[in-house]
Amino acid sequence: MESEIENTDLFDKKAARAFRTIAEVSAELNVSPSALRFWEKKFPAVSPVQRPGGRRYYRPEDIALLKKIEYLLRDRGYTVKGVQKLIEDGTINSAVEQQSGLPSVQTGEKSVENKAELENVIAELEEIAALLKKVI
Questions:
Q1: What angle do CA 107, 112, 114 make, to 5 degrees?
Q2: For 108-130, what is each residue's pLDDT tens digit?
Q3: 46-49 — which CB contacts under 8 Å span 24+ positions?
Q4: How confident is the model at residue 39 (pLDDT cuts 50, 70, 90)?
């Protein structure tokens, strides 16, 4: 537990372009080092630099890709093969953006439209609930 806190502190103090150890990446993504090693085998696009002793150092690009993989696997329910296909097709970025869930926090016209649509759906669901209560 203490080493995890130390790793997190060290991670925060490093420069944005600095390479990270497997322990640091593991702590940031909240996944085990063995999961990271497994993902390296399944996703060749993740290729950390390995020192002669076998110690792994992840580049910022590797970490960005691992974050996307982790999000799609854990939060969006993708399979490993599904994520592999997205990486092969070059569509992983659009899949992550498209799947990000709720409307963005931007104050643009699109988010206002999404809010209005959501309010309409909520109103319809409330009407349906009221009708169901009358029937039951």
A1: 120
A2: 444 445 667 777 788 888 888 88
A3: 48/22, 49/19
A4: very high
Q: What is the pLDDT of residue 104?
A: 40
| Helical ranges in the chain per DSSP H | 2-13, 22-29, 33-42, 60-70, 80-89, 92-98, 109-135
**For residues 65 and 63, what is the distance between their CA atoms, to the nearest angstrom?**
5
Kindly report the average pLDDT of the chain as a whole number: 79
pTM of the model: 0.61
Hey, which residues does 57 pair with through a beta bridge? 21, 49
The token duo for 134 is 């009358």
Smallest CA-to-CA distance from 43 within 107, 89, 88, 3 is with 88
Residue 78: CB atoms within 10 Å: 19
